[in-house]
Every structure is written in C-alpha cells, then in structure tokens.
Design brief:
Length: 742
C-alpha cells in the first residue's frame, strides 16, 4: 500500500483527485467498504474532504466539531478508536447526509504532525468486526503520508474562501514578559523540527542498518555528554542527561521503531511515528514530572532524527531579516551566536526573569516572552509572528487586523524613540534649572554602546555578577580585569560605579556548589558570601584595582546589613591596595567606596554609615521587597504594594536628607528610577542622581526637562508629613496640572 501511495503522491493530478485516489487505495487495501478523510479547519471543525463509500455529496458539506462524534473525539484525544459497533459508542453522532448508518465497525486514527492534530482518517465496514493490531498500525502509517499532504499547501485550494486549515489558523498565546519590546517577524526554530519527507523505504534491511548505526551514535553522544565534567557539576542538567541515557538504552523504544521500519517505513519515518505516540501521551499526561520525561524522550527522538537526516545547524545565511527565534530554552551563549541585528524577538517555552538567557536578551534589547506553553508545536518555520513584550502576548499567524494594529503600535513607539533621541544631547536639567545626574545600569559588554547612545552621565550600577552568570566557569582575575578595563574605556571620562559580586540566593552560578535555601533572598548571598569566602572578593578587588590604575575606581558592596560589614570590606580593599603597592603596581588615583542601601536595618544606622562611606546607592528593588516583605520575583505579590506611598517614600527621604547633611553623594539605582512617574517622585523627595535601564533614559529625561522640581518639592514634602498613605493618584494629578511629560 505504501508503494502505491508513494506513486499517488507524485501523480500530476488535482488535490481533490489525489485525495479521492488515496481513499480508494486505502479502502481496497484494507478490504473496507468505507475510507474517509476529515481535515481540521481553523474554526475547529473537522470537514469531510474525501470519501470512498459514503455519499459523495457530503464531501466538503459534512463536518463535526472538535470533540463531537467519534471523529471529533479521535481528533481531540489524538488517539485511535477501534470499534466493532460504532453506533453503540456514547460519542457516536449520526450524520444523515453521509449514509453511514449501514456500517457497523469503525477504525479511526488521528493525522498528527509535530504534536498537532491535522485531521482524522477512518475506515468502516458493514460487518461487526474488530480491526487487528496490524491494521491499526497500517492505518497510522498511512495517516503520516496524509499529514505531509495536509501540511503542504495543496489543500488550501479546497478550502472555502475566508476559511483556513487548522494548521494555518491564527493562534494567540500568553506568557511572561522577560524583556520589554515589540517584535514583528517570521519564525525561526532554534532547534528545528525535522520534517521527514522520505517516508517509504526502498529496502527494509538497509533501513534497519541505518537505524542501528544512528542509535549507536546517539548512545555514544549521550555518554560523552555525561562524562563532560563541566556539565556534571550542574545538578539539574545531570538529571536530564540520566533520563536521556535511560531512554537511549530503552529496548522498548528501539523495538517500537524497529517494528515500524519493518512495516516499510524509512528509519526516520519510523522514529517520527513512534514520536507521534510519545507526543500524544505527552498531551494527556497531567503529572508534570512524567510530562518532563516524555519531553526528554521527545528531545532524544529529535537528536536521533538529526543523526539520520544528517542535519547540523541553522544556516545563518537563510535566516530571515526579521527573525523571531523560538526555542524551548537556550543558554546565553547560544543566543549570542545569532546575529542579534537580525533578531526581532525571542519566545521561550521555559525561561524566567532571572535566567541567563533573559539577562542577555535584555542587554541586547531583544523583546522576549517566556513560559509560552506549547508554542513549539504550533509554529512552523517561516510563520508570521508578533511578540508583544509589553503585555506578554504572542500572536502566531496573526489576522490582518491584529497585524495592522501592531504595525501602528510599533510606528508610535518608533516616533517616541525618535523624540527621545533628539533629547540625547540636551542637558538633563529641570524646567526650573536643577541639574539631574542621569546614569544607567549595565552589566555586560553588550550594554556599553547604550551608555553613549542614551546620552547618560555614566554608569551608576555595573552588575559584575552578570559576567559570572553567563560564564561556564569562574572568570579568572585576568578576564575580570579585561572586562572592567573595557567598561572604563567605553565610559571614557564618565564615572562608572562597580558593584561587587552579588551572587547567591536566586542568582546561582551553575559551576558553584550551592545549598538549597528556604528563603534565598534572605539567605547567604552578596556581601555575606563575600566575607565568608574572601578569596572571591579579593580577586575581584585586585582585578578592579588593576583595571582602574591611573584613574578613578568606584566600588560598592551589596546587601550591607550592619555597618561593620562595610568596615570589613573596606579593610579588604586596603589590604589588596597595599599588596599591589608593595609589588610596584600602578594604582588608581582615587578609590571611592560605597554601600548599597537595600536592607531596611541600615535605615537606622544612617548616621554611622555616612561617617564611613564615600557614597551611597539605594537598591530600591531589594529595599522595597524587604520593606513590604513581598518577593520581587513572585508575580502574585510583587505589585501588591505601591512604592508611591508615604511609608516607602518617607524611608527614601530619610536617606537622602541624612546623606545631603553630610555631603555624601547618593544615587538610587533600582527599577524605580526607570519609570517616569516614580522618578518624578524621587526628585520630589530630594534625589538628584538616579541610575536606570538604558531604555528608560529617554522617557525619564523628557519628564525631567518638563518638571518644575521646586514646585513639586514644596507640595510633596509637606504632604509626606501628613497622616496619609497612597500618593500615586496625587502625583499623577500633579504631573497633569503642571504639564509634566510622563
Ligand atoms: C536593587 O536591589 O535595587 C538593585 C539595584 O540590585 P539588583 O536588582 O541587582 O538586586
Ligand atoms: Mg539588589
């Protein structure tokens, strides 16, 4: 039968004629009186596209809802139904126009491709009989051939105008915003699903030999991965690899593939057939652990397919200019391998706001949405996609009205960007003449061009841990020194404030052993770890002293909770300085040491603090999460309390008042400074230096230049002293009344 089908695929006939011939061939081969093909449309109805045995008039007229009748049930559950008496089945739905009442036995299988149901293939007989295991297998194999036809564009001609096949229907998915922005473009799969086009074997023995060779190669590659020590240290990877190894040696899996080859399929088609079963099981599996393992098995099958087809990697030259990259997950280095100029957006099935790939995507300014479940199964390479990294939505094959709306949105954003660009060389001075230091937060080399582009006055926070997070192993002193030197070079005369390593807690380094903590944000992190393991901090200080030789060095310490911790950190700097001096190394002309204020306990040690430090920097992200006792990474509580309320604003005001009284420079470098309204409030309570995400410089500068900060202060400061709570509404009203650009 497969041979005959192959011939049919190649015949120069119309799409309808081909389908008609296919149902005839299947019916006669399976000695069935009926064979019908139902194709899933974009409106979730299964339309009868061809039949042998049922009434011809019903073709393209008869249809069933997904989940309705036997055919709808098969499509929904992605499972075959084999029934001696179809009419006795509770799901049976009678379609009078087809004349099917005289047929009793029924065998239907889903037409699957890449985990998606494209249609249903059915055979029926008058007599009450149960189809054999071999017949079910044969029909499933035939369904794979049909899947190729449906996935091609041939059948589009048979679809009513205004309607489309399910395979091409628009989809709207929701995920989590990882990196802000909007991207319109065309899908590129990071690890493309291989489409097996050669389905039918010329010679079964040859295929068996190919399969065995590929399985051997697969096992060797998994073993190699397992012996690589750098991967072994990461606990999570190991679990996945162990699962890979288990599956790679699973005799049941290999036997099922071999059986499929014996029915006449090529080795790759056989792998795909077994993979279809795995995917159908995956769809129904509710236990997350088992679903993950099925995912692993699916990944392994993909590897096997790649070996068989000899696929290597995506050819960059074939990447569309407006690529939207889709992946289950990826490492930061993999993302950097793509030419970021051509990437419009990134969509991940996994990914979290603090994952490394997210950090890199943000640094590259690539709109990213993560935790978009099931997207890989829905997208075909080249599909039109819109990624809305402002709302967390992803539109696959968007209808024209959605696309139009987004084109407008992008245009609007571009116009605003253009306005901000024009502000670049204008001073960041308020309308009433107060200069504001507008700095940016950075952490990777790719951030550096933004400093100049944004027209910032320097780097207010350089997160040194990012280099550690994207690396495979601990960056050595030389590597650290080189990065710091490049940062200082890129900044030229502008000041750069480095922050010492802020790892631990949720910022884990894959190559560093860590213990599970109940409350990682309150755990062994940042300066706490640095003081307990002085080797790390010492190396970093030395790298910085070298890098800043002959210039200014500014370093601050994160998570200081008690002023004595700052004393100890400063003593370490002094020691390193003396050490280098003794060995005749050049030193920075000036060393300025500061503290991040992000632990509430410091609020009642401000007097002691300002006596000691050269500067202060408020980490409002952490300070607010601790003030509110609300986890900044937990979507359920992160936005529950408003920073623009008297409680937190009074705390922030106390800091700036004390710092000013002692002439200690103070900057605020948390996300609060990136939002124009919040930044306005900060200026209103006395801050004159703020550090923000590079993309925020434009909007915040527009606010600054339109603000009469004197007027704001004379209203806000007395207001703060009054017994009251929320201030957001009043701040917005102030901005509106005073024409402040938000
Ligand atoms: C902060 O806590 O506000 C801060 C700037 O540091 P991070 O976001 O890196 O914790
Ligand atoms: Mg912090």
């Amino acid at each position: 039968m497969l041979r005959r089908l192959r011939e049919l695929m190649a015949e120069p006939v119309t799409a309808q004629e081909r389908l008609d011939k296919i149902v005839k061939t299947i019916a006669s081969n399976m000695v069935a009186e009926v064979c019908s093909i139902y194709v899933l449309r974009g409106d979730s109805r299964l339309e009868l596209f061809a039949t042998e045995g049922l009434k011809r008039e019903a073709v393209h007229k008869s249809s069933l809802e997904l989940g309705e009748g036997l055919v709808g049930t098969i499509a929904e559950e992605a499972e075959p139904l084999n029934l001696p008496n179809a009419q006795a089945h509770p799901a049976f739905a009678y379609l009078p126009e087809t004349g099917e009442e005289i047929y009793h036995s029924f065998l239907g299988v889903p037409v699957l491709r890449g985990g998606q149901t494209l249609g249903v293939l059915v055979v029926q007989n008058r007599t009450q009989r149960t189809y054999s295991e071999e017949e079910v297998e044969a029909l499933q194999t035939t369904a794979m051939v049909l899947a190729e036809i449906i996935a091609g564009d041939e059948l589009d001609a048979l679809v009513e105008p205004g309607e489309n096949l399910a395979l091409r229907r628009p989809q709207h998915l929701a995920g989590r915003i990882l990196s802000e922005g909007i991207g319109l473009g065309h899908a590129v799969l990071h690890e493309p699903r291989l489409v097996v086009t050669s389905l039918i074997a010329e010679d079964v023995d040859t295929e068996l030999v190919r399969l065995d060779a590929a399985l051997d190669q697969l096992r060797t590659s998994v073993e190699n991965l397992l012996t690589r020590s750098d991967i072994l240290r990461a606990g999570e990877h190991r679990e996945v690899l162990e699962a890979y190894r288990m599956f790679a040696y699973d005799q049941g899996w290999a036997a099922r593939i071999r059986e499929a080859v014996q029915t006449g399929l090529t080795a790759e088609a056989a792998v795909e057939k077994v993979q279809n079963d795995t995917r159908a099981r995956m769809l129904r599996q509710t236990d997350p652990y088992l679903r993950d393992r099925l995912h692993d098995l699916d990944d392994l099958a993909n590897r096997l397919l790649r070996t068989l087809v000899g696929f290597d990697h995506i050819d960059e030259a074939e990447m569309p200019k407006d690529a939207i990259l889709i992946a289950r997950n990826m490492g930061p280095a993999e993302l950097l391998d793509y030419d970021s100029g051509g990437l419009r957006a990134l969509v991940l099935e996994e990914g979290t706001p603090t994952s490394h790939v997210t950090i890199v995507a943000r640094a590259l300014g690539i709109a990213t949405v993560g935790q978009v479940e099931g997207i890989l199964d829905l997208v075909n390479p080249g599909d039109a996609i819109i990624v809305d990294g402002l709302s967390g939505e992803v539109h696959v094959r968007p209808p024209s009205d959605v696309e139009f709306a987004y084109v407008e949105k992008v245009r609007f954003r571009a116009r605003r960007q253009e306005q901000y660009r024009k502000l670049r060389d204008k001073p960041a001075t308020t309308r009433d003449g107060t200069p504001i230091a507008m700095l940016v937060n950075a952490g990777l080399l790719v951030d550096l061009p933004h400093v100049a582009e944004a027209g910032a006055a320097g780097i207010g926070l350089f997160r040194t841990e990012l280099q550690f997070m994207v690396a495979e192993t601990f960056p050595r002193m030389r590597e650290q020194q080189m990065l710091y030197r490049s940062v200082l070079d890129a900044a030229g005369d502008l000041p750069v404030t480095f922050r010492s390593l802020d790892v631990g807690g949720d910022k884990v380094l894959p190559y560093m052993r860590s213990t599970q903590e109940e409350n990682p944000a309150l755990g062994w992190r940042a300066i706490r770890m640095a003081l307990d393991r002085p080797g790390l901090l010492r190396t970093q200080i030395r790298a910085l002293l070298h890098a800043a030789a002959g210039g200014d060095m500014r370093l601050m310490f994160p998570m200081i909770t008690d002023v004595s911790e700052f004393d100890r950190a400063r003593a370490m700097v002094e020691r390193e300085k003396r050490h280098l001096e003794r060995h005749g190394h050049a030193l920075p002309d000036q060393i300025l040491l500061g503290t991040m204020v992000e632990v509430p306990a410091l609020l009642w040690q401000l007097e002691e603090l300002v006596e000691r430090v050269d500067f202060l920097s408020i980490g409002s992200n952490d300070l607010l999460q601790f003030l509110f006792a609300a986890d900044r990474a937990n979507a359920q509580v992160a936005d529950r309390f408003d920073a623009l309320s008297s409680g937190p604003l009074r705390a922030l005001r106390d800091i700036v008042v004390t710092a000013d009284a002692h002439d200690v420079p103070v900057t605020l470098c948390g996300e609060l400074a990136s939002d124009p309204l919040s930044a306005m409030a900060l200026l209103g309570i006395g801050y004159r230096s703020i550090s923000m995400a590079p993309a925020a410089v434009g909007p915040v500068k527009a606010m600054v230049r339109s603000l009469d900060v004197g007027a704001l202060q004379s209203w806000l400061i007395p207001e703060l002293a009054k017994p009251r709570s929320g201030l957001r509404k009043d701040l917005i009203a102030f901005a509106e009344d005073h024409d402040v650009q938000l």
